[in-house]
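ugh ok fine here u go
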Amino acid sequence: MPPLSRLALLSAAFASAAAPALAQEEITDLDTISVTASAEPVKLSRTGASVDVLTEADLIGAPLSFGALVARLPGVTLTSNGGLGTLSDLRLRGLPGSYVGARIDGIDVSDPSSDKVKFDFGGLTTAGLSRIEVLRGSQSALYGSEAVAGVIDITSWRPEREGTSGRASLEGGSMGTLSAAGSVGVKSDRAELALSLARTLTDGFSASSRGTEKDGFRGTSARLHGRYALTDSLSLGANLIAEDSRADLDGTGADSADTVDSRLRGARVFGTLISGAVTQELALTRLRTERDYSYPAVYEGDRTGYAYTGRWTGSGPVSLSWGADRTEENLDVSSWGSRIDKGIATNAVFAEALWAARDDLDLSVALRHDQHSLFGGETSGRLGLAFRPSDAWVIRAVAATGFRAPSPYELWSDFGNTELQPEQSRSYEIGAERIFASGTIKATLFDTRITDKIDWDQNATSCKSVTTTGWPGCYVTVSGTTRARGIELEGKADLAAGWQVFGTYTYADADVHDKGLTTPAARAPRHVLVAGLSREFASGWQTAFSARHVADRLDKVNGALVSMPDYTVADMTLSAAITDTTRASLRIENLFDADYETATGFNQPERAIYLGIGTTF
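structure:
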């Protein structure tokens, strides 16, 4: 089927799923606050940025895999080399994870020792989380390098009422999976303390599509948040995170006995001072990651950050935010008898102004300058607009520039290239949201272009691996332009008697222009359609069904692009209130037992059934 015909067909399917019915109760998320769209919290109705917010209520009945959950959102796709714990990449608008910033409780958790500085979502579960924001579009003006495609911001559980509160859950099911999680917290008018613990065990399945041996995963996470107001104007706080896991690995060819032990330790301590209309904060952040492979290889990454931020919110229509930070990153790799120990540093300043020009018009401008210890200065900017011509419409537009600096691995590994320079990007998006009496529907057009893209060339001979191993293959600069453009559609509507219909559709055309040749991007599907139906009963029962269809995608195998089959995966959840504070749940993933791959040569789970129970106190 021609691409335009398929686009028309899928768009029609989306429209039929998402078109609002004429019910009485209005649905709108426009008053939801985003903490990532700007340097200060802002209502979704007043930002030009494209951002989706998942709250604690949205996490009820969610998949255990974090990547599987957010892949239901517009513009997000997941590729994984198997089950839990295997290498997993979240793409935004067709761009890979090296362009996606990742933060947990305010800590940048992207791995400095990875081939490209990015976060591997393979071992992250939804246990112990209370809020997820997915911010799409170039955000270098706020977040610096690695934010060309967007930012994923994660918050662990927090107490919402004064006194002691908490929650606990236990879930088990297919593939010998058992997951337990618990959170407890204390909140008063001056203090807040929250601790979340989670443990996940699974025997898994063969990651290799040619294998039969099960590849398991063992993971433990701990997150601690604390904040105390010393006075009415001065408060101190800290966030601590620890993640430990072991995962069995396969290659594309067959079963393997390889394993990886992963450890992540993160800490952020901060102090906040409020002086009238001015709020200031000092923060120190520390991250350490380690991946210990059995073959053998050890990858260690360190990041230390020092940050000062300020915000002025007067009584008028303008608010200002500003800040300065320094980030130090270090790579320490020991592999096959060789070792690399290198580091870089970046100093940055930024400012953002928000202007409520009229009651129906909000404008934003952000500017950031990064001074890299190797590459000098990089300046990024972002202009945003949110216009509300009536209560039923929001029009959004953003224009932004960004950059991505070469990772330490791309520069100094055996496959590295010290001649690499930062990638440059520019992006545009324009969208409209229509609010009906019973629902909403949104459409966003986007276009991102990247020049001087750094990519892997398996035939290059310019790096030291050629002389040390005799094998070709190096990181090189692509001379042309990488482009990702398309449209996102998103909608939901209340139907009669507690029913709700929802859906998203993303068309992303991603390709690479190099030396006059245009090549489609690997692992970037052109079409992703999600549609579902949920029902909430007065008796406390809840049920939901959703299906995700992924079509028109390629993968790179031995340097050549190959077509991958389309696939459709359906999930179903059912939960019931046992008491006012306890719920039991049934979740079926891959309901119709589809056989599919998101990365060539690697399996995805067959039909899986999970039973769980959760309680709050």
